[in-house]
Amino acid sequence: MEFARKLAEGTGAWLQYQHSCNRTGLFSERFLTEPIAEILAAHTNSRVIAEHHHPVLAPLAKGKGAKPSVDFVVLDPYPKVKMAIESKWIGATKPSIGSIMWDLIRLEMIANLDGAECFFLLGGMKRSLDAYFSDESFRGPKNVHQPVLQALKNVKFDVTVAASARHRIPVMKKLFEKYQETEFPHAISTRRTEPFPADCKSNQYQIYVWHVSSKPKRDIFFPGNSKHYVAPFKEKGN
Question: Do 128 and 90 touch, CB atoms closer than 8 A?
Fold first, then answer.
């Protein structure tokens, strides 16, 4: 968690500096790549690569189109992934719940494969972050309360991937459509570090970072064997 703190503080402080330079018009997920890459390189002294093909999912992707990748990885020793980071930005447009879940799943799979340290970073204006966290699509229905991530406390939290999180079934089914015979975790272990800055005005910018890992006792499932996640062609027996 020490690196998660450094990542949150370093990226958050960089945003404050850029804000002071009147560069908020440039703020975006792409804009975060500079501080993330710099912090990674400074603290690992290893090979940092952007948009690295996912070691598990990329080989399974057939046909045309971009293969699943990871925003940043540190390879040490090459080609083993030592550290991986995915990031999202909340601005004029907001990341979908599906895109965040897909980031978390892909990070967990890397953590399980290579024992890598994996982190998910989310940034934006404080009022936009607060609104996003309080939206039902993120926090889950009032009678269920199964949020995508624990955004309010620095505690361990399991993100449910399996169909027991029924309100996310349509989102997850779409994610798993191309990976019917691939094993996925029932749940993902996450832990938030203190956001930076911890206390700020609603119109200031803030960075959240979660450590993402595999559960010690990792249960798996195959979407093609799930009545909730099976793709339409599978249901027809084709």
Answer: yes
